[in-house]
Amino acid sequence: MVTLILKMNVNNGYDVHLIKDNDKGVFMTADIYEFEVQTITGDKAGLEKYKNQVMLIVNTASKCGFTPQYEGLEALYAKYKDQGLVVLGFPCNQFGRQEPGSESDIEEFCQLNYGVSFPMFAKVEVNGDDGDPLFKYLKKSQKGLLGSEKIKWNFTKFLVNRDGKVIARFAPTVKPKDLEKDIESLLE
Predict the structure, then answer these.
(1) Domain contains 154
(2) DSSP designation for 121
(3) What is the pLDDT of residue 2?
(4) pTM of structure
(5) 103, 130, 135, 173: most buried by Cβ count inside 10 Å?
(6) Is residue 4 part of a domain?
């Protein structure tokens, strides 16, 4: 379980969070760039790699009614990547077991069926005690409907500005093309 113990704003405009994670002790994060994630090929990668870019972070699945959104996510990435957008896909098997394959199966499926070229990462859990720390942070930063932190389904989207601030959270029913105005405003 993750608990937000202290939240304060420091001089450079970043929020500093002191977070207690029962499994990992207490850690402090000034921003999203301090998180380390595992790529779909098993390598470790720090999100600082995406500093000064607009990030669209999405929990994904290959056997979901929203799976065709991969096409829209790839279209956004292709259209805006040169302006500083990066889409980050995190497969998740927590909802109806809609992502049962291995990381290599997922990568192959995404490339063959949707031409996905944006960065994909290892399978994560987004809710519960075993939830990935990045998604715990995202959910604390932008709550869902009626203030709920819980992610309801695959293809929930989090939009992060160039300064690492989580700006918005979008339900799975929001299509990628409907995010263009929000993304464009952050790319200016």
Answers:
(1) yes
(2) B
(3) 46
(4) 0.86
(5) 135
(6) no
Exposed, middle or buried by CB within 10 Å (0-12, 13-18, 19+), for 104? exposed
Residues 58-112: pLDDT tens digits?
999 999 999 999 999 999 999 999 999 999 999 999 999 999 999 999 999 999 9
- Cα(61)–Cα(80) distance, rounded to whole angstroms? 23
Q: In this structure, what token pair is assigned to residue 162? A: 């160039």
**Is 3 part of a structural domain of the chain?**
no
| Domains contained in the chain, number | 1
Return the CATH number at 71: 3.40.30.10
pLDDT of residue 11: 38
| DSSP label at residue 144 | -
Give the span between the Cα atoms of 56 and 178, in whole angstroms: 13
As a three-state string, the secondary structure of 25-39 is: EEEEECCHHHCEEEE
Active site residue 64: yes
Cα–Cα distance measured from residue 142 to residue 135, given in angstroms and rounded to the nearest whole number: 10
